[in-house]
Amino acid sequence: MTLNTFKRHVRESVKSLGRNGWMTFASASAVTVTLLLVGVFFAVMFNINYFAKKVENEVEIRVHIDLAADNKEKDVLRQRIEALPSVKEVHYSSKDEELKRLIESMGEEGSSFQLFEQDNPLSDVYVVKAANPQDTVKIAKQIETFQSVHKVNYGQGTVEKLFDALKVMRNVGLVLIFGLLFTAMFLISNTIKITIFARRREIEIMRLVGATNGFIRWPFFLEGLWLGMLGSIVPIVVLALVYYNVHRLYKQQFSLQLFELLPFSPFIWQLSALLLGIGALIGVWGSVMSVRKFLKV
Amino acid sequence: MIEMQDVYKTYPNGVVALNGVSVRIKQGEFVYVVGPSGAGKSTFIKMMYREEKPTSGTIMVNGVNLANIKDSKVPLLRRNIGVVFQDFKLLPTLTVYENVAFALEVIEESPKVIRKKVMEVLDLVGLKHKIRSYPNELSGGEQQRVSIARSIVNSPKIVIADEPTGNLDPETSWGIMELFEKINERGTTIVMATHNKEIVNATRRRVIAIENGTIVRDEAKGEYGYDA
């Protein structure tokens, strides 16, 4: 394709947007509404995911070492734990450190535990982190069978429930997003079909004077692209503004909560790029699907 | 050159449009195709620019067998054949100049060549002064001239016309016919389906008459031969 031809395609596609003013508006609005919904969904999903990751990363396995174990046995245990395939790191915490931690976590009442500093009843601990948090339970079960292990603690029960809940949330979100995108594609494909139907005479004449299918398709392809991109402007602006304010207010009101929102930048830029990409994709897909049936020779 | 050999065409709904047609049209000929409505004239003409495919038989146009060329090759074929219709088939949103230039833009000519060729053919059809008008601002005869200009701007070897004077009054029709004569004089083959008795009888060209899907008459310097 020559540069002149490409310029022609761009010119034609832009002209056609103006010529079919109302249809352009309708198609772009369809994209806008869909992307707005999809965008809100993405924002919520990404934040849940972000939260889930944080929670997951805080899950750790505390391996209480048998009081009878000597230093050599401790080293053997450490090596065995480190040898497990999905273990990320092992960190040693002596019983004195454990007691200090306990006292601190108890606050005022903790002072009464200071008595134990003379005769510490706690055991030394290996704090184990899994490379993939989902493997936590599996690793813990394995470590339980090792020698010199007194007890393994990983928040039994709670961790399993948490992981299950996060999994369900992710899957439901994915299904909903796919459903929305699918609906949008059909909406757009139908709207563009109408604009093309109005121009079937033009296509007929193009074919008559010897235009190749590729040549005929280009302006429609570009038109779909512009429609998708036009339609994504409003959702991007709206989401950016809303998110900016929600983020600001949330930080002021609940600054110490466990649940933290993703920082505005770069998240909103990524989300914008994603929405623009999706808009362009559904626009192009819609127009290519609609022009296909007019191109049978 | 156009050569058909035992061409049959049955449409999917069972209608038999052509029932064994063989014909040979030499380069530079001027041929009228006549016959009653529904006799197969349109199908016969459409075969030549591959708007319809034959059910069986061969159709050679400029040395290519249209019966078995690939769909993707059809655009290339069409660039060597100009087509003119009764209803002009102009794009209402484009000016006269743009409508004619369209045929060249589609084959990716350079703007310089397009400008030169378009002005040439518009001069030939006598519409150089109307290049900025839109089709709905022109008379029927003028619109048909634009469509003829578009059909010949590629310098095709063959121009196929399907009742080009069907929508025009007699006087305008004569003007259009003179234009076709002029194009024919330049060596272009012209195949024209028509119902216009006066024109056929007055010009005395080769006449092919089609009835019930077969050629019933093929004579040089023939007459229209029907009353209507």
From TrEMBL, chain A:
Annotated Pfam families: FtsX (PF02687), FtsX_ECD (PF18075)
Localization, UniProt: Cell membrane
Domain FtsX extracellular: 59-152
Lipid bilayer topology: Multi-pass membrane protein
Record's keyword terms, sorted: Cell cycle, Cell division, Cell membrane, Membrane, Transmembrane, Transmembrane helix
ABC3 transporter permease C-terminal domain sequence ranges: 175-293
InterPro entries tied to this protein: ABC3_permease_C, FtsX, FtsX_ECD, FtsX_firmicutes-type
Transmembrane domains' residue ranges: 21-46, 172-192, 225-246, 266-288
Function: Part of the ABC transporter FtsEX involved in asymmetric cellular division facilitating the initiation of sporulation.
Family statement drawn from the similarity comment of this UniProt entry: Belongs to the ABC-4 integral membrane protein family. FtsX subfamily.
Name of protein: Cell division protein FtsX
Protein's organism: Geobacillus thermodenitrificans
Recorded name of the encoding gene: ftsX
UniProtKB/TrEMBL annotation, chain B:
UniProt cross-references to InterPro entries, sorted A to Z: AAA+_ATPase, ABC_transporter-like_ATP-bd, ABC_transporter-like_CS, ABC_transpr_LolD-like, Cell_div_FtsE, P-loop_NTPase
Topology with respect to the bilayer: Peripheral membrane protein
GO biological process, one term: cell division
Key words, A-Z: ATP-binding, Cell cycle, Cell division, Cell membrane, Membrane, Nucleotide-binding
Cell membrane listed as a keyword: yes
Matches recorded under Pfam families: ABC_tran
Protein location: Cell membrane
Keyword Cell cycle: yes
GO molecular function: ATP binding
ABC transporter domain: residues covered: 2-228
SUPFAM superfamilies, sorted: P-loop containing nucleoside triphosphate hydrolases
Source superkingdom: Bacteria
Function text: Part of the ABC transporter FtsEX involved in cellular division.
Record family assignment: Belongs to the ABC transporter superfamily.
Oligomeric and partner information: Homodimer. Forms a membrane-associated complex with FtsX.
PANTHER family, alphabetized: CELL DIVISION ATP-BINDING PROTEIN FTSE, IMPORT ATP-BINDING PROTEIN
Protein's name according to its UniProt entry: Cell division ATP-binding protein FtsE
Source lineage: Bacteria, Bacillati, Bacillota, Bacilli, Bacillales
